[in-house]
Structures are given as structure tokens and as C-alpha cells.
Amino acid sequence: MSLFIGRDRERGEFRPFLKKKAASLIVCQGRRRIGKSTFIRECAAEANHFLSFEGLPPREHISRREQLDAFAERLAEHTKAPRVTLDSWPQAFKLLASLLPSSGSTVLLLDEISWMAIGDPDFAGHFKNAWDNDFSRHPRLIVVLCGSVSSWIQKNILNSTGFVGRCSWQFRLQPLPLPACNEFWKGKTINTAEKLKILCVTGGVPRYLEEIDPAQTAEQNIARLCFRRGGPLFNEFEQIFHDIFTRKAETYREIVSSLVAGPRSISEISKVLERGRGGTLTEAMADLESADFVSQDIAFNPATGKSRPRTLRHRIRDNYLRFYLKYIAPVAEQVKKGLYRQVPLESFHAWDSIIGLQFENLVLDNLDGILDTLDLANVPILNAGSYFQSKTARRRGCQIDLLLRTKQSLYVFEVKFRKKIDPSVIDEVSKKIDSLSGVAGLSIRRGLIYQGELDPEIERSDYFDYRVPAERLLMP
């Protein structure tokens, strides 16, 4: 049974290229394990022909020779032509173009293209010439360039003058939205809290969700995946950082580790790491953002909805990455010794708080679905996101989990994941609203996005205009 789930919108956007009579060049980006290759294969199932080539993962001393040999081997498998020794990428592309099917629609996937380029600084130029002179002349050919190293694709393809006007479509596969994630439990009677605990750790990464065993509790699954020496998510962090950032992996790890305690500005990151905030650090942050590990949070003025660029802070966007750095990495040595095999996660210090913070992160990264749930999808939103107001002599500080600004209203949302949510949440939100400055004249609507049992007093008070149980976030 196929585990392919979701991506209906993206498949709908891909489908017209299969009907085009002219050749198309498509660029697909996305986080490692997000399912880029699988998505292209699913789309290619509607084509007459499909050929795929993948670069070899980075390792010490790997060269262009090994990449070309792997390409030649794969070319012989696809075309049944005799295997030949390839001496250059221009030769490889020329041979591939000559062996493409002469009729019908063809999808050609060049996967992990930055790996393919290892050892040849002119690889992108060679491919550009091959596209202009050979591939683009094949009717009904779709060439898809795919990769996890988005910074390489941005620099060498999307931002290159040589490729201007050549890309028919560029898109980024995001984590699966929550309703699509819910499909991994289809036919199983699993409660919302257990599903969300899993998603708080994995996010909407399909490859991680495929490892879930519905017969186990959420805590059993997380323990098996994250706190066992052979667990796929115990070893995952080092693997993906090495694959994507190679020699820079350790430096980039230090940078994301500096964000574990919470969002920081570039100046604060620079101070923590004791390094200049110049080009190298700025470039690293751009690489981490293009890999979908980190995001930029820019606060906005609640009174006007306008962004405040000087407040830009960087946040760990990826739920797995955040969970690994904050909770797995500190006990990695004990896990390797097998000391966590008999430790129930419920016994972790503040386990409920751990999941609560991860849930807040999950909510922020599923904002589109939440707007649908609130029936605000068609309401013009001037700005949205978490909100932080620093304390000054003239105002109190406050932190709001989710703040939405429309033309006439502010929507203040508290996000909670607890076994029981008591009435004190009303006082919390009330104090935050009172702390907001410059919002006189605006309508203020209060909301609670929650997982857990609401104290009856919360419902009787009618304080919240929106009470959104988490199970609604999982519904299509």
C-alpha cells in the first residue's frame, strides 16, 4: 500500500506541464526527508516515461569521477544502452539527451543536484548549455531539478543570470499540513492528544511519520525513535546536517543551538557565539532558512499592523530540530550507553511543558490551516505571528502566542497543551491585552487554541470569542 499522502494542490500545479507540447524546466526545493523525490515520482506516474538520477551523498574525497560513474550506471539501467565511461558533464548530458524517449511525455528528475555537482565548479554552466542546446528541444520533456541544499540551488540556478527566463515553475515542498498528517492514523482509534504529541516531535515530515507504530502510545513511539541508540530520529540530526552543510555542519549546529532557548536577533546570536555578525554569520542564517530549519520572526505594531524590521529575530522553525537540540542532544551519551531504555518519557522533568512549547511551534507553522478553522481564510490579514513586546519605563512587557491584525481588529490567541486547562488562562490573556500599547479603538477578539480538558468555568465565563480544540486542526 502506498504511503503517499496529501500534496493535492502541488500535484494540480504540476499536471499542466505534462500536457505541454514544449519542454519545461522545474525546480523543486524543500527540507531533507520532506518527500521531494517521492512527490516527483507520484506526479511522473501520469507521464509516459520517467527517468531519475541522484547525486552521491557527500563524503571525504568524493570527486566528479564518482558522480559521473554513478550517472553512467544509472543511464545504462534506464535506457538499456551499453554502459560507457563518461569523462565530463557536457558529455554525460549530451548522451542522456540523445537517449531520451522520442514520443510521449517524459519526466527527467535530477535529484540532489548539488551533490551531483561535487568536484565540478562549472556544473551549473554545463547544465545550462545542455538545456539550451539539447533538453529544451525535446517536446513534452519535463526536467526537474531537485535538492535539499537550497542555498546551492538559489545561487547557481534561481539567482543565476544564465537561467533567467528558463524555469517554468519553482516551488518548495513544505511539511504536510495537520489534516494530511492525520491520514497516517487512518482507520485507527487514536486520540488527538497522542497524535499531537507525535506531531510536536516530528512536525509534518512524511518520512518521520512513516516510522510511527499506531499500536504503541505516543510516548513509546517517541522513546523508540528518539531515545534509543539505533532510533532513526536519534541519529537523524547529525546525518542531515552533514548531508546538507558538509564541512560547515559543526558551525551551523552551533548557530541553531544558540536558538534553543528561544528566538534571537542576529546581534544576540553573534554575542552568544562570540563571533562577528558580518557576512559569514548572515550567510549561515540564510542557508539555515533556505533549508527550512530556521525562520525569521518580525514583530509588528499592533496598532497599525506594520512590520518592525529592527525587531527581526530568528526562531527554530523545524519541530524535530528543536526537539533534538533541546531534549535529545543533552542526553545523547546516556542514550548511546543504553541508559534510557527503561526511562518512561512521562518521568522527564516537565514533560507536559516540553510538549506544550513544541505545540506552540507546531501551531505557528500551520497558520494557513488555523485561519481556515477560524473562518478567516478570506479576511484580509495585515499581519500575523507570535508577538513579543519588551518592557520599557512606559509599558509592560508581554508575549502573545499568536497575534492576528486585520483592518479593524486584533485577534489575541493563547495556545495551551495541558491535561486540564484552568481558569487562570483568562487572567493570563487579560494581562497580556492590557499590556498592549497603542491599540485603543481597535476591536479585540480573544481566542484559545488548546488540547486538554477545559475547566467548566472557562466556558461559563464566555471570555474567549474563539475556543479551538486541537482536534479541529486535524480535520480537513
Give a short synopsis of this structure:
The chain is α/β, with parallel strands linked by helices and 476 residues long. 42% of the residues lie in helices and 18% in strands.
What secondary-structure arrangement, pairings included, does this model have?
Layout: H1 8-19, E1 24-30, H2 36-44, E2 49-54, H3 64-79, H4 89-99, E3 106-111, H5 113-116, H6 123-133, E4 141-147, H7 150-158, E5 169-173, H8 178-181, H9 192-202, H10 206-209, H11 218-226, H12 232-245, H13 249-257, H14 266-273, H15 279-290, E6 294-297, E7 313-316, H16 319-328, H17 332-336, H18 351-364, H19 367-373, E8 381-389, E9 398-406, E10 409-421, H20 424-435, E11 443-454, H21 456-461, E12 466-469, H22 470-473
Parallel strand pairs: 1-4, 1-5, 2-3, 3-4, 10-11, 11-12
Antiparallel strand pairs: 6-7, 8-9, 9-10
Could you please describe the fold and organization of this structure?
This protein is 42% helix and 18% strand. It has 476 residues and is α/β, with parallel strands linked by helices. The chain folds into three domains: 8-173, P-loop containing nucleotide triphosphate hydrolases (Rossmann fold); 178-350, Winged helix-like DNA-binding domain superfamily/Winged helix DNA-binding domain (Arc Repressor Mutant, subunit A, Orthogonal Bundle); 364-473, Trna Endonuclease, Chain: A, domain 1, CATH 3.40.1350.10. A five-stranded parallel β-sheet has the order 2-3-4-1-5, sandwiched between helices. A five-stranded mixed β-sheet has the order 8-9-10-11-12. It has a two-stranded antiparallel ribbon with strand order 6-7. Strand 10, helix 20 (424-435) and strand 11 (443-454) form a beta-alpha-beta unit. It is globular, with a radius of gyration of 25 Å. The two termini are 22 Å apart. The model has no long low-confidence stretch (mean pLDDT 93).
